[in-house]
TrEMBL record:
Family: Belongs to the sodium:solute symporter (SSF) (TC 2.A.21) family.
Main location: membrane
GO cellular component, one term: plasma membrane
Keywords carried by this UniProt record: Amino-acid transport, Cell inner membrane, Cell membrane, Ion transport, Membrane, Sodium, Sodium transport, Symport, Transmembrane, Transmembrane helix, Transport
Species in which this protein is naturally found: Thiopseudomonas alkaliphila
Classification via Gene3D superfamilies: Sodium/glucose cotransporter (1.20.1730.10)
Gene Ontology BP terms: proline transport
Entries under CDD domains matching the protein: SLC5sbd_PutP
Protein topology in the membrane: Multi-pass membrane protein
GO MF, one example: proline:sodium symporter activity
One Pfam family from the record: SSF
Name of protein: Sodium/proline symporter
């Protein structure tokens, strides 16, 4: 394929811009706190858009439009559940976690926060939570590498193994160089690109069909049930789709954005920006799939690729409807979605290895420069493991991604939520909640024949375990309670 191909040129410019941002962030990175948490300096806009971009991944531009294209609006319940969960996470957790982590010995990672919040001298909380992060995020990273490889493979005709390394290298380079600031700044650019792509594409689909009435009439003729949000959706299925929203309370790559905000006062503005972005992008993704039904019904000769794989509906519409240069920019939105999620997952894994194992157990007095370089080496190590897993895209481990979200949500969500809202919670309660949540998700998924999404029983039983064990324990120490009260007072005064 010629180097002058518009899509190839726009992708090259885009990736080069992300790497340039990495170098700019490198100049602003002075210590390990800067590398993994940006020195707690993110403003409202960057906090909001980086949280959204790191969350959505390629699923937003491929999986969701493809599902709606196949089944109609009944597939949009998951989007409603995600917006609800994200809003509640911003409302109840974001500001409190920002002040509680600072009061808990300026904790830089979730395991670090749990350790200091509950004065866990045994360091069991640190070890278990860091292991959970490494296990699930390595799988997540592998899925991101696969998504990037599939994009380069389908867009440029590369063989899978070459596409695998090209996609991974593009992301790893700017994370390695610039750390958290690079990830957050590039996420902001990527979030902007994603919302542009998802708002402009459905508008052009409708214009290509004539008008909105024609689009609706065509979809009605194809399948009237496409308009029915309850078509084929049982009560259990509805609860399960909404249950995805519970996962937000426990996702380390999203929670770390709250920890990095410049102050608790920036959180309300960030919440409004982030939720508006989510509603618009998710709405755009649903619209792409929905109006794609009408477009390919009217143009069956162009539907070959989508018939073979419904997740290509967004990419095919972009290629068909836009000038090649504009299509290149829009398709870069898919790359943006993949890179934004993969980059923050790599960094969270690196943080866990560096802060919660290397510094905590091997080199307590390591210099800041040493920790930054260890963090960079850990990014490379996790990336290589992810590439090794992704080398076989049919590997069963990649199928675990859907319940890695549930695993994080049930293992960490109740612990995080109650740790910032309930002064009486104890270290043993946190440990019980973490173990019960994680184990319930695995047991429910593997051994119980149920259509109920495993995060729901996992989350509920984890909360019960935290409350019961905490109430059985003696009350937390006076220093823990005073620290909690100081953090809560700071939050309320903001």
């Amino acid at each position: 394929m010629s180097i002058s191909t518009p899509t190839l040129v726009t992708f090259t410019i885009y990736i080069s811009a992300m790497i340039l941002i990495g170098f700019i962030a490198w100049r602003a990175t002075k210590n390990f706190s800067d590398y993994i948490l940006g020195g707690r300096s993110l403003g409202s806009v960057v906090t909001a858009l980086s949280a959204g971009a790191s969350d959505m991944s390629g699923w937003l531009l491929m999986g969701l439009p493809g599902a709606v294209y196949l089944s109609g609006l009944s597939e949009s319940w998951i989007a409603i559940g995600l917006v609800t969960g994200a809003y509640l996470n911003w409302l109840f957790v974001a500001g409190r976690l920002r002040v509680h982590t600072e009061h808990s010995n300026n904790a830089l990672t979730l395991p670090d926060y749990f350790t200091h919040r509950f004065e866990d001298h045994s360091r069991l909380l640190r070890i278990i939570s860091a292991l959970v992060i490494l296990l699930f995020f390595t799988i997540y990273c592998a899925s991101g590498v696969v998504a990037g490889a599939r994009l380069f493979e389908s867009t440029f005709g590369l063989d899978y193994s070459t596409a695998l390394w090209v996609g991974a290298a593009a992301t790893v380079l700017y994370v390695f160089i610039g750390g958290f600031l690079a990830v957050s700044w590039t996420d902001t650019v990527q979030a902007t690109l994603m919302i542009f792509a998802l708002l402009i594409t459905p508008i052009f689909v409708i214009l290509a069909l004539g008008d909105l009435d024609t689009a609706f009439a065509t979809i009605e003729a194809v399948n009237p049930k496409s308009f029915d949000m309850f078509d084929g959706v049982s009560f259990i299925a509805l609860i399960s789709l909404f249950g995805w929203g519970l996962g937000y309370f426990g996702q380390p790559h999203i929670l770390v954005r709250f920890m990095a905000a410049e102050s608790v006062k920036s959180i309300p503005a960030a919440r409004r920006i982030s939720i508006t972005w989510m509603i618009l992008t998710l709405g755009g993704a649903v619209a792409v799939g929905f109006f794609g039904i009408a477009y390919f019904e009217n143009h069956p000769e162009q539907a070959g690729a989508v018939t073979g794989n419904s997740e290509r509906v967004f990419m095919e519409l972009a290629k068909i409807l836009f000038n090649p240069w504009v299509a290149g920019v829009i398709l870069a939105g898919v790359l943006a979605a993949v890179m934004s999620t993969l980059s923050c997952q790599l960094l969270v894994c690196s943080s866990a290895l560096t802060e919660d194992f290397y510094k905590a157990f091997l080199r307590k007095n390591a210099s800041q420069a040493e920790l930054v370089w260890v963090g960079r080496l850990m990014v490379l190590a996790i990336a290589l493991i992810a590439v090794a897993i992704a080398a076989n895209p049919q590997s069963k481990v990649l199928g675990l991604v859907s319940y890695a979200w549930a695993g994080f949500g049930a293992a960490f969500g109740p612990v995080v939520l109650l740790s910032v809202t309930w002064k009486r919670m104890t270290r043993n309660g946190a440990l019980a909640g973490m173990l019960v949540g994680a184990i319930t998700v695995v047991v429910w998924k593997e051994l119980i024949d149920s259509n109920l999404y495993e995060i729901i029983p996992g989350f509920a039983l984890a909360i019960i375990a935290i409350v019961l064990v905490s109430l059985r324990d003696k009350a937390p120490s006076q220093t823990i309670q005073q620290r909690f009260e100081q953090a809560e007072q700071e939050f309320k005064q903001a």
